[in-house]
Each structure stands twice: as structure tokens, then as C-alpha cells.
Design a protein that fits this description.
- With 417 residues, the protein is an all-alpha fold.
- The chain is built from 21 helices and no strands.
- Among the domains are: 31 residues, no CATH class; 57 residues, no CATH class.
Length: 417
């Protein structure tokens, strides 16, 4: 009997909530829906469950030239300019940040244009995330961008056609791009104490889930869409006051092609600046760092925050020490003629941005040391995941260095040197 009483109470409560719940959004009547309800019904359903359906019709974003299946190519696809009409502040923040430069970073890779079209332009590889930044409709239509007409900006987080703010505010919205080989922020955060606490409370105590930070708490503080970090993707800042560390970094900058083998700046420095993948002044670095410090101090004491940032910075230095030695070893093999300069390669020096397009095992190991293990070692330090920093990062870098030393010795032995 008590079970039935309990069920009656629960069901009454559910019914009460349903009666009080706001009615779902209802789209302004649109002729587009009559057709798309037949050919893409979930698209229509998604739009109608979203907030924008209360005031907007399809033509606001897609234009009015497309009226039948015969002229479907006339349907305009939204760009950042479309979103900016209603969301100027968020659009301006986004365009000032690093996410808007995803395509710039991809184009900076010297061999990206040699990859399969489906892999890059067809978005089945790097292009799947790095179409971010193709905001201009004409750029999407150009010959070498023919597949990029579906490039994403705001829609990457506020997925179409619901464009939900609530969805975009959850950490899973970041997971598609920020996971895996070279940027496993999802894996590091979700298994850190921050991530575990947030995800557990989202289930057992939803009203208390924000007692731990999610991605947006730190990277989009107060809803700011700029998204920028002090260290940048390459974990490089200039100038560096620590002379020993600057020595390591000089070798790394040569490997990145920002400096030539003699230490002189190259044209690639402009590409690094354009992509905002490094901080090139103390003021710029300190400004970005201060924003993160302010977020951390909402929960932690100033001393705790300062100590953790200091140790995370030192982890970058320790990774640079190992990495610079590895680059120098491979560079010496170029100098000795044991590794031949590839066609189109500007210098007889390892080029880290060619990634896996190399001809020797030792360079492949150097690439993995850079893009996989160094990235994990330094990123995990800032995402509060010591296990990731150790076993997937720093320990793997030490293994890489041992292998590179042995391979270099073996190559010299086989060459009679």
C-alpha cells in the first residue's frame, strides 16, 4: 500500500511540474517548414525546440532566394556575420580570440595542402575542427575552399538547428575538438578532481554542480567568447627571462621554423603571430595569465594559486629541456648529411610543423614527442591531472629521448661515423 501511495505522490509531482512548465517554443509560421518537415523533419523539430524559433523564420539566416528543391544551392549558409546581427558582443569577442583562427592555424602547416581532400576540405580529418574561422561566405565559395561551405563558427558549440545555450554551456560541447592525440583536454579535465566533482554533482546534486569548474568556467569566464590562454598551443612565450630556459626555447623555435638554423627570424614568425599560437610579449602573457588567476582565486587562496601556476610553468621548462636536446640531436644528423633535406624544405634542419610527413623513424619519434607527449605533459599541469602529466606526458618524453639517442648512434654506426 505504501508503494502505491509513494507512486501517487511522485506522479502527482510530475504532473504538477508539467502543468507549470513553459510551453515549448513555437516557430513563426514559415513556408520552409512545409517542405523540410518531409525531407528533414528533425531539423524542423530542432529549430522549433529552440529559443530563436519564437521570433525568427528560416529566411533570416538562409535568405529567401531558395524556394524549391531545384534551387537549393541558392540557400545561404550562416556565417559569423549572420550571428553578429543579433549577437554583436559575443561575435566581437569570438573574432578577437583564438577559435576564430582555426583555419589560419591549419593553413600555416607547410604540408596541409598535400593531404587528401576528404581529410582536410571534406572535414574527415583536421578540417573537421579547423574550419573554424572560415566566417566569410566568399572564402567558402573559392575554388580551394569548395568543401568548406559548411565550415562552422558559432554553430560548432551552439549546434544547429536548436542553437542551445544550455548545451553549449556544458563541457561536452568542447569534447569533439579538444580530445585525443595532441590536445586531450577533455580526458585530462574529466578525470581530474575538478572534472570528476563537476560530473558527479551534475548527476547527484545538479543544483550544486558548479562547486567545481567546467571548461567554460575558466576559458569563457563570465560568458566571454574570446577564449585565449597565456601559453598558447605551442607553449611558447617571448621574451624569456630565464637564460637557461631561453636556450632551450631558441632550439625549439628553430625546430618550429620561426628561427632559421643561425637564429634569425623567418617569415613563419608572421604566421605564428597571425594564428596567435604563442605569446610574443611579456605584457600579452601577463594579461592572459591574470584572467585565469582571477578565476582560480574565486575558490582557492592566492598562495595556492600562485604555487600551482609556478609549478605548472616549471613543467613547461622541464619538457623544453628534454625536447630541445632531442631537436638538437636530429639537427646534427642533418648537419652530417645522415638525414637528407626534403624537396621544399627551406633548411637542413628538422621542421616540426611537417608533423608525420617525414622520411625517417627518428623524425617520426621527434614529431610524437612534440605533438603528443610534450603537449600532454604541459597541458595536464594546468588541467590539474598529475597522472596524465606523468605517464602520458613526461615519462613518454624521457622514453622518446632515449630512443632518439639510440637511433642517432645507430645511424652514425651504419654510416661508418
Amino acid at each position: 500500500m505504501r508503494i502505491f501511495q509513494w507512486l501517487n505522490v511522485v506522479l502527482s509531482g510530475v504532473l504538477f511540474c508539467l502543468l507549470l512548465a513553459p510551453a515549448p517554443a513555437s516557430a513563426v509560421p514559415s513556408e520552409c517548414e512545409n517542405c523540410h518537415a518531409k525531407i528533414s523533419p528533425v531539423m524542423v523539430k530542432d529549430f522549433n525546440r529552440g529559443k530563436m524559433a519564437e521570433t525568427l523564420t528560416c529566411d533570416i539566416c538562409h535568405g529567401s532566394e531558395h524556394t524549391s528543391a531545384a534551387d537549393a544551392d541558392k540557400a545561404q549558409l550562416p556565417t559569423i556575420a549572420t550571428c553578429r546581427q543579433c549577437h554583436p558582443e559575443q561575435a566581437a569577442q569570438y573574432l578577437d580570440g583564438k577559435h576564430a583562427l582555426g583555419q589560419v592555424a591549419l593553413d600555416a602547416m607547410p604540408r596541409s595542402h598535400q593531404q587528401p581532400k576528404a581529410f582536410m576540405a571534406g572535414q574527415k580529418g583536421c578540417g573537421g575542427c579547423h574550419t573554424l574561422g572560415l566566417a566569410d561566405a566568399e572564402a567558402r565559395k573559392s575554388e580551394n575552399r569548395q568543401y568548406y561551405k559548411y565550415g562552422m563558427d558559432c554553430q560548432n558549440c551552439h549546434t544547429r538547428h536548436a542553437f542551445s545555450k544550455a548545451e553549449a554551456a556544458e563541457p561536452e560541447a568542447c569534447q569533439t575538438c579538444h580530445m585525443g592525440f595532441d590536445h586531450p583536454q577533455w580526458e585530462m579535465w574529466s578525470s581530474s578532481k575538478h572534472g570528476v566533482t563537476y560530473l558527479m554533482n551534475r548527476i547527484i546534486n545538479p543544483e550544486n554542480k558548479d562547486r567545481a569548474p567546467r571548461c567554460q568556467t575558466c576559458h569563457m569566464a563570465e560568458g566571454n567568447h574570446r577564449v585565449m590562454t597565456p601559453w598558447g598551443f605551442l607553449a611558447v612565450r617571448l621574451p624569456e627571462e630565464d637564460a637557461e630556459w631561453m636556450g632551450y626555447r631558441t632550439i625549439i623555435l628553430k625546430g618550429l621554423g620561426v628561427l632559421d638554423p643561425a637564429g634569425n627570424p623567418t617569415a613563419r614568425l608572421d604566421v605564428v603571430k597571425a594564428g596567435k599560437v604563442a605569446r610574443l610579449s611579456k605584457e600579452e602573457f601577463d594579461t592572459e595569465r591574470a584572467k585565469f588567476v582571477a578565476v582560480c582565486q574565486q575558490c582557492h587562496s592566492p598562495n595556492f594559486v600562485a604555487e600551482n601556476f609556478k609549478n605548472a610553468d616549471q613543467m613547461v621548462k622541464e619538457t623544453d629541456k628534454l625536447f630541445s636536446e632531442a631537436i638538437a640531436i636530429v639537427a646534427s644528423l642533418y648537419e652530417e648529411g645522415l638525414i637528407k633535406q626534403k624537396e621544399g624544405q627551406p633548411y637542413a634542419y628538422p621542421d616540426l610543423l611537417t608533423f608525420y610527413d617525414v622520411d625517417t623513424k627518428i623524425e617520426e619519434t621527434l614529431y610524437e614527442m612534440f605533438m603528443d607527449h610534450r603537449m600532454k605533459a604541459f597541458q595536464a599541469g594546468f588541467h590539474m591531472n598529475p597522472d596524465y602529466a606523468t605517464w602520458y606526458g613526461f615519462a613518454k618524453m624521457q622514453k622518446d629521448l632515449v630512443e632518439i639517442r639510440e637511433m642517432a648512434a645507430d645511424m652514425r654506426k651504419k654510416a661508418g661515423k
